[in-house]
Amino acid sequence: MQSALDFSGKVVIVTGGGKGVGKGISERFLEAGADVAICGRSEPESLPTANGRTAFYRALDVRDPDAVQAFVSEVAEHYGRIDVLVNNAGGAPFADAATASPRFSESIVRLNLLAPLFFAQACNAVMQQQQSGGSIVNIASVSAQRPSPGTAAYGAAKAGLMNLGTSLAVEWAPKVRCNTIIAGLIRTEQSHLHYGDEEGIAAVGRTIPLGRMAVPQDIADACLFLASDMASYISGASLTVHGGGEKPAFLDAANVDQK
Q1: Of 229, 182, 250, which is closest to residue 84 (Cα–Cα)?
Q2: Residue 141 annotated as catalytic
Q3: Structural domains for the chain
């Protein structure tokens, strides 16, 4: 198992890899021996570092296909290969679907669906030329599978990302595997924006069967597995990482004796 999770000599791209979940993913691959290249709109306060090694960083807008191609080409030229792409960059602020502007909605879909496609296309072109091929891991969300009030365009885009992964897994096989992680609620440095103070975060965690929200390491470990040789026959799959999910609301609303 240890050798199967050894990424020494491998090159990994993590979009949005400088903070939150992305930073956790970047650090996990660095710990496993990989060379890691990350990108984001602004340089993080501290770059991901592990075992005395630091991630390679470039600033770019992942929604710009020309910038994406330039970044992927630079990484491939610098390291000589690309083995793993983790499409992590994404997100959306709260917006009422009734009043969200067309420009806003288009921007959300472009960030959460089209940008991962742009990166996947650019990396696939490199991976197809390698004897060992490559692996693409898309980070989706439980918002893709349930109502996403306040972030309707985001949920729809993530649902599209899940479907995209299944299509790419067919089109780009056998050289390139493509899988999706359906992430649940995750505690990051920005959790207070969504869940409130520590009491609010703890309360949300108690609604999850495993008793807590995920941390970036949980998602990172799933990425490491899907990108590794241990998952060599897994492609076109969706791995749900949500601690057991969210308890159905009717359980609290019902007044039937459940003894």
Answers
A1: 229
A2: yes
A3: 3-240 (3.40.50.720)
Helix (H) or strand (E) holding 21: helix 20-31
Residue 192 CA from chain centroid, whole number: 20
Q: How many CB atoms lie within 10 A of CB 129?
A: 13
pLDDT in tens, 218-258: 999 999 999 999 999 999 999 999 999 987 777 778 877 65
Q: Is 167 a residue of the active site?
A: no
Q: Which two tokens stand for residue 251?
A: 């359980």
Is 10 an active-site residue? Answer: no
pLDDT tens digit sequence for 23-64: 999 999 999 999 999 999 998 989 999 999 999 999 999 999
8 Å CB contact between 214 and 176:
no
Catalytic residue among 135, 141, 143, 228: 141
- Of residues 26, 158, 195, 228, which has the active-site annotation? 158
